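I hope you will forgive my troubling you with a question about protein structure. You will find the record immediately after this paragraph.
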Amino acid sequence: MFWMKRDRKKIGEILVNKSLITEKQLKDALQRQRKKGERLGTNLADMGYLDEDEILPHVAQQRRIPFISLERYNINYHATATIPYEVMCACKVVPLDIIKDIITIAIADVPSEDLVKRIEKLTGLKVKAVMITKGDFKRYIETYNLSVVDKDRERVETGTAEYIDLPGYHGQERRRYIRFNRKLKVKYEFREEFNINRSINVSRGGVLVKSKSPIPENTHIILRMELPSRHEDIIVISRVVWTEKTSDEDGYLVALSFSSMDAADNRALINFIESLPK
């Protein structure tokens, strides 16, 4: 993807110039951002100054990325079948069209270079990204027809990569995998916050981590795990199975089921698990 230079004006300055917020509101939001972190847009929304969907078109303009409304776009459902449902949910991505070797995707966020590379590896196609509102994305996912995709497929093969759809687990079914008490570094982003935690146990089917904050059940997130003696993290699309407060009430236990991952990452995880003493 061709990464265009962003407008030199900061997003806060753009919003003030368009009379969407006042200088005082911007100052308050920046002060809150320094204390709590997260993006400026999230802080403005949390403080009730602007809805995030009002901010995104201006972020797209600043980044010089096309901004569209899904209601006015004729989606090519052949493109939809190239990206698993779990990946769409975790990455907030909607595949729109495929022309020759280029796939157009809509993202309900600022497209990162890492995400674009991930989609290119998954599909074997070059990526052209546009932006949509989070409301647009939510409405699309809620009405998404799973019959478009072969739900029984075990993997999607492309010209450059192989993507594995892993079986999920529920209740006692998760006992099918032996769990090992290993403290691995686990990284993920949730609600604009980047989290680095340690696993409590790990298996071929999922991982249990301790988190400072809860994550709602059935949330899909992109999980990165560091494996010993491996240069790169493995990246797994994961689903939250359950969340509960720890006995000492200083955090939360979050159980994650692995949904999808790159075939090479899957092999690396299996090799690591098989190397552990039984």
In short: The radius of gyration is 20 Å.
